[in-house]
Write a structure and sequence with these properties.
heterodimer; A: alpha+beta; 5-stranded mixed sheet; 2 helices; B: Chemotaxis protein chec; 8-stranded antiparallel sheet
Chain lengths: 162, 204
């Protein structure tokens, strides 16, 4: 039986293989998936907002700037090497076309995630960002494959793997 | 300290009562537009963790038509009107004379059917809310998307999540005549700072 963990909005989780990390309904939020391919340690965070503004926060996983370093620290505890990490990211859509404010949040989330990953020295292997469709994602800690589901034409679910 | 820490059972009951009045008006509007009987359920008021939104629904990835309308003034917030795909198709057929096989590719005419329904249905909700509380409320132009249910709701709560980890969701379900399933939902989502203002206006 495949082990799966669903991560809530603004939460994060590190896990050892075998494990599939899942998060549902990423709109302007960005799902960041990290993995140490040798140690088979993976992690996922569902980022809602680009930055915390330096305030003390109760849910650090909501913010890219504080959440990503915390996820890396958790993965380190499970045996991952911070220098061996690789990343895949998805999300940052603008679901409502006429809404300037949320369109900006999606874009700003993507920019902030990329900047933080760069600061942490984690290369991005692939990404599926932007557009107008929400995404659900499943990340295999074993293979590093990131499966993305979104609503496509004909109201059918479109599945792609990056 | 969060505003939500002060919320008590009596406050929740008051929010339920307000929503009852609002949705009563909204159901009448929906009924006269579709010439069908529309019944409403008792509103469900709950304080939810935003992180748990994906776990609130049986089928979080269900394709849904989502039409939010923002309002500003003495209170800030939004009303989110949701239709399942089958009733959404039926509404198009009733009002335009033809349905749509694929709601993900609606033309401007079809989109405007839904934004207009939102204007009328949610507009009457907002008027009722304004009259009952004696507060000034001004609504904006509705937006529309067809996407996964959980993403639409999460996205609608997102802008109030900057300061808060929780949100109050006030949910009412509409039952449209001849539909075997409950086909439409309405959520009132308030900016956190507007909740004490609303309760104060009611003398609480």
């Amino acid at each position: 039986m495949e082990k799966k963990t669903i991560i809530g909005i603004g939460e994060y989780k590190a896990a050892i293989n075998p494990m599939t990390l899942v998060t549902l309904g990423l709109g302007s939020c960005v799902g960041v998936c990290l993995r140490d391919p040798r140690q088979r340690v993976g992690g996922m965070i569902h980022v809602m907002l680009p930055e915390s503004g330096g305030k003390s926060v109760t849910k650090p996983g909501k913010y890219a700037d504080v959440g990503i370093p915390l996820l890396i620290a958790e993965m380190k505890k499970l045996g991952a090497s911070p220098t061996a990490l690789e990343a895949k990211i998805a999300g940052g859509a603008a679901m409502f076309k006429s809404d300037k404010s949320t369109m900006e949040v999606g874009r700003r989330n993507i920019d902030s995630v990329k900047q933080i990953l760069k600061q942490c020295g984690v290369p991005i292997l692939s990404e599926e960002c932007g557009g107008s469709r929400a995404r659900s994602i499943e990340y295999s800690v074993e293979t590093g494959a990131l499966m993305i589901r979104k609503v496509g034409g004909g109201e059918k679910t479109e599945i792609l793997t990056i | 300290m969060s505003y939500y820490d002060q919320i008590q059972g009596t406050h929740m009951d008051m929010l339920k009562e307000i929503s009852n009045i609002g949705t009563g008006n909204a159901a009448t509007a929906l009924s006269s537009m579709t010439s069908k009987k529309v019944e409403i359920t008792v509103p469900n008021v709950s304080l939810v963790e935003i992180s748990q939104i994906p776990f609130l629904f049986k089928d979080p990835e269900k394709v849904t038509v989502g039409i939010p309308i923002m309002f500003h003034g003495d209170l800030n917030g939004k009303i989110l009107l949701l239709f399942d795909t089958e009733p959404a198709r039926e509404i198009l057929e009733l009002l335009l004379g033809f349905g749509n096989e694929d709601l993900t590719v609606m033309d401007e005419m079809q989109k405007s059917v839904f934004t207009e329904i939102c204007n009328i249905v949610c507009g009457s909700y907002i008027v009722a809310l304004s009259q009952f509380t004696n507060l000034f409320l001004n609504s904006e132009v509705p937006q529309i998307t067809v996407d996964m249910l959980t993403a639409i709701i999460a996205e609608s709560c997102l802008e109030y999540a900057v300061e808060e980890d929780r949100t109050i969701l006030i949910e009412t379900r509409f039952h449209i005549e001849d539909q075997s399933v409950i086909g439409a939902y309405l959520f009132l989502i308030l900016e956190p700072a507007s909740i004490p203002k609303l309760l104060e206006s009611l003398g609480m």
